[in-house]
Amino acid sequence: MKWIEVSVTTNDLASEILSEFLMEEGANGTEIVDAKAFKQALEESRYLDYADDGLAESYGPHVVVKAYYPEGTDPEKLLAHISQRMDELSRQMDTGPGIIRWQMRDDTEWKDNWKAYFKPFQFTDRIVIKPSWEEYQPQAGQTVIELDPGMAFGTGTHETTRMCAVLGERHLKPGDRVLDLGCGTAILSLVAAKLGAGSILAVDIDETAVRTAKQNVINNHEAQRIEVRRGVLSDIDRQPFDLIMINIIADVILSLTDAIRGYTHENTRIILSGIIKSRRDDVVTAWQAMGFRLMEEEEMGEWVALVFYA
What is the pTM of this model? Predict the structure, then answer.
């Protein structure tokens, strides 16, 4: 389907007002492209962990408001209205550069453009992550996991996911029965499978994550060893696992401190990640109070990961 894309280069102050005006002019949708806000989201959110820095840099220093109009819209008339509104607005506030452009777009153009920013990368000493559309020839000793981020969480480059994988590589034993709680795209489950786990139960509360995880498991030919379910810990029958990986957030980890006992035996190893440094002591105190032994910890950036033994 073809669209007329109108873009107005402005600033944060005027962007919301301008976006509303463009909708009033008949836009089917608008988009505010703000490099500064996107970079901040990358720093603060563990759900955007697979984006190359170049994606944010490509947006440039200004805020750009984009609006999409159906084919057949008169672009000259539309731009005249927008220009008039920008002139009026500039008398009341700073509107930035105020550059107005338009072009014909076909929605097939941008469906796959984002893929240019996702490349194979070294995940752990032994594991390389690659998206399905990239070619990669593994070197000696490397194992490749093919992972498509889809619309789900936990795709590999964020510190919390990487620390969990690194610690999993150290503490997983061949044949282990593994629980991956908050599995996201199932990246940690796939790591466990490639490292020799006997069986893995991957669980996430998010429907999109579960759908993406199931597809990633199939793509990596691990459906025999990895079962993906939607749910929370209480939805799982109480049974002992050898290794439990929980990469969520500190508050959720703290809420599981008591209940997790029903899924351990005397030799269970538990890897906790997604913990901001300021919450590290809270988690350690709570888990040690329940009799878990802290055996190892890792730090990356503002995050900490912990390994407890039951």
Answer: 0.64
